[in-house]
Automatic annotation (TrEMBL):
This is MHS family MFS transporter. It is a multi-pass membrane protein. PANTHER family: MAJOR FACILITATOR SUPERFAMILY TRANSPORTER (PTHR43045:SF7), SHIKIMATE TRANSPORTER (PTHR43045). It is found in: Cell membrane. The keyword Transcription regulation does not apply. Pfam families: Sugar_tr (PF00083). Its main location: membrane. Keywords: Cell membrane, Membrane, Transmembrane, Transmembrane helix, Transport. InterPro entries: MFS_dom, MFS_sugar_transport-like, MFS_trans_sf, Sugar_transporter_CS. The chain crosses the membrane at residues 21-42, 48-71, 83-105, 111-129, 150-172, 184-203, 239-257, 277-299, 306-323, 409-434, 446-465, 485-503. PROSITE patterns: MFS (PS50850), SUGAR_TRANSPORT_2 (PS00217). Residues 12-507 form the Major facilitator superfamily (MFS) profile domain.
Length: 512
């Protein structure tokens, strides 16, 4: 490739990647703040239900992504890649900014979660149109035989977007007091989005249409009805279904397990301090992200299928051992407590003339440097403990752990291993999908299986897995924390079997 060609493709990569990264940032800022948002937009009398409701709202954005893929994919195949994903960027940025402006549940009641849900649906529609456009746009600029390498840069944007969301949250927390962040500071990451969107729009407006689409349009070879030609044609529909069930379905659950499920597991099951969790995940992502490029490049040499299937197989076999080790690393029952350093502080919070909370804060230190804080809140009314719906005393217990350096290193390593699985399945998949479909229906055809695989199968993972874990815990299962993994393991296993049997290496050159 000549220097001018390299310069040109780097411009394409930069413009496409920045916009796509911002869209992922917008989408994932909600997930990164799920624990905080559950207390702002949902009733506070049942924290578990509020958290599950937040995860369900988060998942709703994923569920509508296929509809965004159909709508914007059709638009992209009719009028072009450039203008379509400019619209998706503006829609995503606007919805994110407005989420940061919505009053809390205490202020406007049930209107708060309703508005948040509507905006999450708009975000999902926008993201449904963004990824296919960016991946297609870059692939159609890439030299022959190098699509895996160049499209892998787009693959980094989802992880970079998650990393940036964590970095912005950590920075905001460090600049504000805990009280200020809880009161209004959590809104700042949503507001920051609008500035990044503005910069990206300035960059994207100077981009040219992709050469392959421009050529097809000039020759009158664009689709007149992309939806019908993509899904009404039995031959093409076969490839759409193969892409979904043999690749993106498994890739989707591996992606979300390695990043979002890991984050929720550290926060809600291991009870590690939220700032430490964001640091752990941030370090693992920085170490793992370059491997998207490595596996994208390698897929140009040895084929996409082998790398993606290996990533799924590793995940299927190793998830349960990895998460068992993660849990045991910070399990307080396996550590030695320094009894003389245990402190208990009692306080009272008056709510009304008849209601008050008795709060008992117990701080424990362990020989390995771990520190835990347990806050037990007893709800009282007229001097008696309030009973819940099941007739049990309404006592809430929250535990937070500050982990030591050795445990930090171990957890970073275990998350990093999961990120490697992610890079194996996700690094080559953009090129894989682009090469399955002809130019005139490429945007539509590749977007749908990608967003069904990621939006439906992957996006529902946090809510479904949390539900499994909660049920297993209530049933008294000692390894309740592993039950949520059955969902990604089964989905990835089905995808692995279908992919190994039906995906042919010739797909890599189907539309070269």
């Amino acid at each position: 490739m000549s220097n001018s060609s390299k310069k040109g493709i780097w411009k394409v990569i930069s413009a496409s990647s920045m916009g796509t990264m911002i869209e992922w940032y917008d989408f994932y800022i909600f997930g990164s703040l799920a624990v905080v948002l559950s207390t702002k937009f949902f009733p506070s009398d049942n924290p578990t239900a509020a958290f599950l409701s937040t995860l369900a709202t988060f998942a709703a954005g994923f569920v509508v992504r296929p509809f965004g893929a159909l709508f914007f994919g059709r638009l992209g195949d009719l009028i072009g890649r450039k203008y379509t994903f400019m619209v998706t960027l503006l829609l995503m940025g606007g919805a994110t900014f407005v989420i940061g402006c919505i009053p809390s549940y205490e202020t406007i009641g049930f209107l708060a979660p309703v508005l948040v849900l509507i905006l999450r649906l708009l975000q999902g529609l926008a993201l449904g149109g963004e990824y296919g456009g960016a991946a297609t746009y870059v692939a159609e600029h890439a030299p022959k035989g190098e699509r895996g390498y160049w499209t892998a840069w787009i693959q980094t944007t989802a992880t970079v977007g998650l990393f940036v969301s964590l970095a912005v949250i950590l920075l905001t927390k460090s600049l504000l007091s805990k009280e200020d962040f809880d009161a209004w500071g959590w809104r700042v990451p949503f507001w920051v989005s609008i500035l990044m969107v503005y910069v990206s729009v300035l960059i994207r407006k100077n981009m040219h249409e992709s050469p392959e689409f421009a050529k097809a349009k000039a020759e009158g070879k664009t689709a007149t009805n992309p939806l019908k030609e993509s899904f009404g044609n039995k031959y093409n529909l076969k490839f759409v279904l193969l892409a979904l069930f043999g690749a993106t379905m498994g890739q989707g659950v591996v992606w979300y397990t390695g990043q979002f499920y890991a984050m929720n597991f550290l926060k809600t099951v291991q009870m590690i301090d939220a700032s430490q969790v964001e640091m752990l995940l941030g370090i693992a992502l920085v170490l793992g992200t370059p491997f998207f490029i490595v596996f994208g490049w390698l897929s140009d040499k040895i084929g996409r299928k082998n790398i993606m299937m290996a990533g799924m197989l590793f995940a299927i076999v190793l998830y349960r051992p990895i998460y068992k080790k993660m849990y045991e690393t910070t399990d307080l029952t396996l550590k030695t407590e320094v009894a003389e350093k245990t402190k208990v502080v009692a306080s009272a919070k008056v709510i009304s003339e008849t209601k008050m909370d008795s709060v008992y804060t117990t701080t424990r230190e362990f020989t390995d440097g771990t520190v835990s804080e347990e806050v037990k809140t007893v709800h009282l009314e007229n001097g008696k403990v309030v009973l819940d719906d099941k007739g049990k005393e309404k006592i809430e217990t929250a535990v937070s752990k500050k982990i030591n350096n050795a445990d930090t290193i171990m957890l970073v390593f275990l998350i990093f291993v999961q990120v490697i699985f992610v890079t194996m399945v996700y690094g080559p998949i953009a090129a894989f999908l682009v090469e399955m479909f002809p130019v005139k229906i490429r945007y539509t055809s590749m977007s749908l299986p990608y967003h069904v695989g990621n939006g439906i199968f992957g996006g529902l993972l946090p809510a479904i897995s949390t539900y499994f874990v909660t049920n297993a815990k209530e049933a008294g299962n000692p390894e309740f924390y592993l039950e949520g993994l059955w969902y990604p393991i089964i989905i990835a296993a089905v995808s692995f079997v279908i992919g190994m049997i039906y995906i042919d290496r010739k797909i890599n050159t189907l539309h070269e």
